[in-house]
Design brief:
0% of the residues lie in helices and 43% in strands. The protein contains no helices and 11 strands. The radius of gyration is 14 Å and the shape is globular. 24% of the residues are buried. By secondary structure, the protein is mainly beta. A hairpin with an 8-residue loop joins strand 1 and strand 2. The strands form 2 sheets. A 6-stranded antiparallel sheet has the order 1-2-3-10-5-8, with no helix packed on it. Strands 7-6-9-4-11 form a 5-stranded antiparallel sheet, with no helix packed on it.
């Protein structure tokens, strides 16, 4: 698991408001993922049961490897863009492009991969625990 920023609320009933300029970012480095990404948890704990909202900041060209999550993901592109592909192998010719304002729902145990187009920020929400596993579900 990854360390979480200290501002994370303790209870789901706490009122929380965030200002983009005051977000706390830490390195996003699950096993098997390349360095360079950053994560900011806006609400909840992605690695425990329950709702969470986080942001991922990815540099231009950042490659999210083929992986899957045990829970569904709700992804909104806030800035930049991503090329995203689904399936059991990486095929850039099959990728779809998503730009600011676009939304993607990724079902649980659904393998996918992505690549950032420009400096990119994604907002991701779902039900924890959020624990990426490389490859395809067994």
């Amino acid at each position: 698991t990854m360390p979480m920023p200290a501002q994370m609320p303790a209870e789901a009933s706490d009122f929380v408001a965030g200002n983009e300029g005051t977000l706390s970012w830490i390195d996003f480095a699950p096993p098997g993922f390349p360095p360079g990404g950053k994560i900011s948890v806006l609400h909840g704990d992605p690695f425990s049961p329950g709702l969470f909202v986080l942001r991922l900041s990815l540099p231009d060209g950042y490659k999210i490897p083929l992986h899957w999550n045990p829970t569904a993901e709700y992804v909104t592109v806030l800035s930049g863009g991503i090329q995203l592909g689904i399936g059991n192998s990486v095929d850039m010719s099959a990728a779809q492009s998503y730009s600011p304002g676009d939304f993607v729902f990724i079902p649980a145990r659904h393998p996918y991969w992505a690549q950032a187009r420009g400096a990119t920020v994604l907002q991701v929400s779902g039900n924890g625990p959020f624990n990426p596993s490389l490859g395809v579900p067994k």
